[in-house]
Amino acid sequence: MIRFENVGLRYGVGGEVLRDLTFRVEPNSLQFLTGPSGAGKTSLLRLLFLSLKPTRGLITMFGHDVATLTKDALAALRRRVGLVFQDFRLLDHLTTYENVALPFRVQGRNEASYRREVIELLRWVGLGERMAALPPVLSGGEKQRAAIARAVIAQPQLLLADEPTGNVDPALGRRLLRLFVELNKSGTSVIIATHDIALMDQYDARRLVLHEGRLHDYD
Fold it and tell me: Per-residue b/e over 25-53, b at no fewer than 16 CB within 10 Å?
C-alpha cells in the first residue's frame, strides 16, 4: 500500500532530517513508529499524510507516485488517510460533536446519516457528556480523545497517530489503543508514533525505529 525507496527530506538549505528511508507498509497492517525525540518521527508522519513531498527518493501510496500528483489529486488521496495530530487541531468554534462529525460534513453527507455513529463513538471514548462543549473548555485528555474520534470516524484506509496516548492516563491509553487495533482488524492500516515501550510490548506488531533521521531497525 505504501512504499518508500531511498527517501530523504530536508527543510530549506539545512541538512537532511530524514535520510535513505526504505520500507513498505502492507494493507491491513499495524505498526509502531518509535525513536528518541528529534529522530524525525513527525516529519515521517507528514510525508505519510502527504503534507510534505520528499526532497529525494520515491514514495508510492495506494499505487500512485506522490511526486507526480497534482494538488487536487493529492487532496483526494489525503482523504483516505486519518491523522491524529499531537497538537489536536480541533476547531475552537465547533463543538466536540461538530469537530468529530467534520469529515462527514466535508463529504457532504446529511447529518441524519451519521449522527448516531458520531454519538456512539463519542460515548465510547468517554465524551458522551461533552458533546456540546467547545475545545477551549476541554482538558488535554478530552481534546486528545476528540481528535482520535475525528480521525477514525470515517474509517480511513490508513490511520496515522502521533503520540495518541501522551495526554491520557494509562487505563484510557490502553482503551484508545484497543480502538486502533479494532480499526486495524476492520481493514485499516495503522501507524502509531509513540515513546511508550510498555504500550508497544502489549502487541505483536512491527516497529519502525528512527534514529538521527535513519531507519535504525525494522522488526
Answer: beeebbbbbbbeeebbbbbbbbbbbbebe
**Secondary structure (3-state) at 9:** strand
Over residues 95-138, the pLDDT tens digits come to 999 999 999 998 899 999 999 999 999 998 889 999 999 999 99
Spell out where 14-53 has E strands. 16-25, 30-34
Q: What angle do CA 208, 163, 187 make, to 5 degrees?
A: 65
Angle at 13 between CA 9 and CA 16, to 5 degrees: 30
178, amino acid identity: R
Is residue 167 over pLDDT 80?
Answer: no
How buried is residue 110: exposed, middle or buried, by Cβ count under 10 Å (0-12/13-18/19+)?
A: exposed
E-only strand ranges, 37-93? 56-61, 64-65, 81-84
Query: Cβ-count burial of 84 within 10 angstroms (0-12 exposed, 13-18 middle, 19+ buried)?
Result: buried
Q: Name the residue among 131, 107, 109 with its Cα closest to residue 118.
A: 131
Residue recorded with cell 461533552: 130
Contact in structure between 58 and 6 (CB atoms under 8 Å)? yes
- Beta-carbon-side half-sphere exposure of residue 123 (alpha carbons within 13 Å): 6
Report the candidate in 38, 55, 143 with the shortest Cα–Cα distance to residue 91.
143
Q: Name the grid cell of 151.
A: 480521525
The secondary structure element, H or E, covering residue 121 is helix 115-124
- Strand 2-10 relative to strand 56-61, pairing: antiparallel
